[in-house]
Amino acid sequence: MIRFEDVSVTYDGAAEPAVRGVDFEVPEGELVLLVGPSGTGKSTILNSVSGLVPHFTGGTLRGRVTVAGRDTRTHKPRELADVVGTVGQDPLSHFVTDTVEDELAYGMESLGLAPDVMRRRVEETLDLLGLADLRDRPIATLSGGQQQRVAIGSVLTPHPRVLVLDEPTSALDPAAAEEVLAVLQRLVHDLGTTVLLAEHRLERVVQYADQVAVLPAPGAALLLGTPAEMMAVSPVYPPVVGLGRLAGWSPLPLSVRDARRRAGDLRERLAGAVREVPSGTRPTPSSSAPSPSTPAPIAEVRALAVRRARVQALRHVDLTVTPGETVALMGRNGAGKSTLLGALVGLVEPSGGTVRVGGLTPHRTRPKDLVRKVGLVPQEPRDLLYADTVAGECAAADRDADAEPGTCRALLSDLLPGVADDTHPRDLSEGQRLTLALAVILTARPPLLLLDEPTRGLDYAAKARLVRLLRSLAAEGHAIVLATHDVELAAELAHRVVLLAEGEVIADGPTTEVVVSSPSFAPQVTKILAPQQWLTVTQVREALG
Ligand SMILES: Nc1ncnc2c1ncn2[C@@H]1O[C@H](COP(=O)(O)OP(=O)(O)OP(=O)(O)O)[C@@H](O)[C@H]1O
Ligand SMILES: Nc1ncnc2c1ncn2[C@@H]1O[C@H](COP(=O)(O)OP(=O)(O)OP(=O)(O)O)[C@@H](O)[C@H]1O
């Protein structure tokens, strides 16, 4: 259905092709998962199926890409729209209408479908993706994950024969991600839809794939095979595969269920091993604090309520954060995580209750004074960056924070060597942009550091670098609060997990306690080795010695 024949793409001005000699086929009615570290060309391959490469991105495409027999070089994206539905990495940039319902209908309208068919499919899709309550909402007022669901819904309604999805679950909560993948699988099985999908969070998707295509390194040849074959050789793999490799299981398990069946021996070996307190996870924040007295909190939230237009986004929220602790805020899309971070940094005004950060009331404090107390790395780091060059961005950060000139640049070079001063922030990769935003925020050395979905778009290596960095900041005494759907990240990093549901705190405790009992928020290793309480492959490796 999709065929690549010896395809190479070279972007204008680039010395090397972004992808080289790509030659593979996605048969009709199969779901093929495209994986690989950042920058290996996954988006480039996806965009050449929809025709965005080279028609919109520029550059040169050699070889041939055909979709349902149509050559994408001679057919513009518009002329492929009746066959291919695409969701890109940045759904916001693709929305064409203002409300949820209109957006779901738009693709069908442009194809001229009958009104009764459109009506039926809109209703179906609203139900399928849990959007019914949001049907009249302006898209601009939706949470990140709600927007991503709308973006996915809007390509499903025209029933395209081919779906091309670039990280479709990056902003979704774990349950929503499962729901979306179940919908895709149903389309593949029942309607024979062909799906090509790229994703970094393999723990969410690998078990749904018929085949996996791996781009091991920039410019390297693409490998194609069954998920089990590919997971044995891929440089990126989910924790279930990491555990399987560690335990020497063959064939490698791809799902928690497969792994549980094999895990008897491993559980026995682990029961014998001394269970140490895992690195990065302390039983309670205060019990291991250096001084006998608990440090004074850096942030205190009492009975916080926030209304956003007609939505009660938060109610009765109490939260205390002390220096040196890392707190993960988790909960379904729209639960109020970003709103709570917004209240801590003064962007969102409480409608009731109080918020105190470093003795100040954030929404009544001048930004200049507040930057020394608290900094937020937003869900879309681009929202924070407005200069034309990396150097300009860093100079502005130094000024805003009254820091020595060169402070921000030194931080950036430390975190991420090799980013040139004259690069436009727009041309950085997702991970590079996140790191730049982090350096900008850290320039003021705020004692409270907030991050909204920091692992969106990051590969496993970039995530590991972020974990190391945040751990060392916590060890220096920074308090860190991160809103995340990445259960594996929370397991690695957080001392404490706070679960929000419909604007209320429903659990607040040490990571192990909160996640072990939750089917949605438990990491893979926990599910595989239950009833023993392990969180990560690293912990298991250390325990086995
Ligand atoms: N429009 C463009 N113009 C110039 N270079 C580009 C463009 N898009 C991508 N590149 C470069 O091509 C290479 C492959 O990028 P691509 O986005 O396809 O990788 P990816 O595997 O999807 O990465 P990620 O997982 O980070 O999204 C990178 O070096 C990137 O900087
Ligand atoms: N400007 C706004 N106007 C009206 N409602 C809003 C606005 N911003 C957010 N909301 C609503 O407030 C609720 C909480 O949103 P918030 O962004 O805090 O959720 P979240 O937990 O961060 O979600 P996600 O996991 O999807 O990022 C959602 O129902 C959202 O639709």
Automatic annotation (TrEMBL):
The keyword Transport applies. SMART domains: AAA (SM00382). Residues 278-296 have a biased composition (Low complexity). Keywords: ATP-binding, Nucleotide-binding, Transport. PROSITE patterns: ABC_TRANSPORTER_1, ABC_TRANSPORTER_2. The keyword Transport applies. CDD domains: ABC_cobalt_CbiO_domain1 (cd03225). One of its GO terms (molecular function) is ATP binding. Belongs to the ABC transporter superfamily. This is Energy-coupling factor transporter ATP-binding protein EcfA2. It comes from Streptomyces pseudovenezuelae. The lineage of its organism: Bacteria, Bacillati, Actinomycetota, Actinomycetes, Kitasatosporales.
